[in-house]
Amino acid sequence: MPEPNQAASPPSRFSLLYNSVSLRLFLLLFGVVIAGVTLHAYASGRSTASQWMGFLEQSAHRSSELIKSGTYYGMLMDRKEEVHRTIDKIAQTPDVVGVRIYDKRGIIIVSADPREIGRRVDLQAEACVVCHDRSQPLHSVPTRNRTRVYRAPDGERILGLISPIENGPECSNAACHAHRPDQTILGVLDVMMSLSSADERMRDQTRELILSSLLMVAVIGASSALFIYRVVRVPVQRLIAGTASVARGDLDTRIDVGTRNQIGQLAECFNAMTDDLRRARRELTEWSEKLEQKVVVKTDELSHAHRQIVQMEKMASLGKLSATVAHELNNPLAGILTYAKLVGRSLGEERFEPDERAEIARYLDLIQKESRRCGDIVRNLLVFARVSGGEFALQRVNPILERAAMLVRHHLEIKGIKLESHAISGNDEVICDADQMQQALLALLVNAVEAMPQGGTMTLRADGDADAVRIEVGDTGVGIPAEVLPHIFEPFFSTKEGGTGVGLGLSVVYGIVQRHGGSVTVDSAVGRGSTFTLRFPRRPDQASGGAAAGSGG
Known about the structure:
six-stranded mixed β-sheet, alpha+beta, Heat Shock Protein 90
């Protein structure tokens, strides 16, 4: 027995032929045909032989009666020469071997062969035993017992017929050779006929019967083979080929046996089964593809959520750090700024040389600028680190957009930037901190202005649905490189040249949107510009949480 994982060896040609249903059916039918034809031929041969023998016996009986009629008057008148001539003449007839008459003692008194006259026949021989096989001879012999068939010394078959010569009144009353009235049988006429011609014709008929039987067997066998081949073997082979094809995975296989019998019904059931299997496999394939797509989507969502968590942890840690730095840095910066102002006033009262005065004034101006810059850093840190902003209330978005656009309008005119603004046409109300939303929009608008030093077009668009409000801030500026996009929301990360940027603007935007339970996404490509999309849920307490993502065009 082969192992479970071992492929079974293909069956041999002899095994396929031996197990063939069509071959077994043909052998069974052919055997029945041979048996039937053989029995028919045997019965026909026996019937023909019996008919021939009956015909020959009737012919011999008629010949015997003709001989008795022909010799009647000769024997009645005791004309032995006339009787001899008649018997000799009849003995010359074809197929007549001999004719003889012997009395009740078995002595041959008349014969076509003169050598037999006077000879005594054996009373136990074929011609006499029917009468003398008892203690007393029979007075009459039944017709069915008068014939006998025996072989001559040369092997020739002989049909012998004995016909009793009865004692009639004309014989017992005749004066010439009267017999006693109580003597019923005067003698026996024995006619012997050759069966050679009959046997030859029988052999011819037997050969014809055998040939016709063989021809019948051949015709019936060929017809049966053709019928079984077309009706059984071809459809079965198609079924086998179809099942083998399906076993190899080809579910598009169709079987057409061209018949409506049970094999045809089996083929239709097979085709229906393959259709069901093909449909089931297609559904499984579609489900598998959908599952793979869902896995990819969920994987992306998990990765996105992981990035959000990492970003949130960064923000939390940096928020704590920012609060500490802002608290420790604010006091000395305030002192620096105060003393710088005092020095400036002193310079206005004391007399210095003009060159010295100008140099000191320039130094003091730098102190003030750097001090203000440190103050801006501290202020942004405080905003970034603030856990809870102002109070959330139901606000209208369109006025917030107008105020933010108004604050940067002067910068737009200086840079030659065109502003395209699209307010919400329907319900623009949302629960939010209006100041923080305006601060986030202002930071994005300022970044958009700085991204278009040679001018361009700025887009400020807002729309909403039943759940949230979306605000887009777009520009046609230089764009953001793809390798930079994942880091733009990290604190202190800046792409501005010359160190003019602090790197907290987009981090502040992210923190504001997060506190509102919204999300921020960016679509940008170098040379095409950038578009930031802010999503604020109408009810932050029912929002799922903030998110930030970037995508490159």
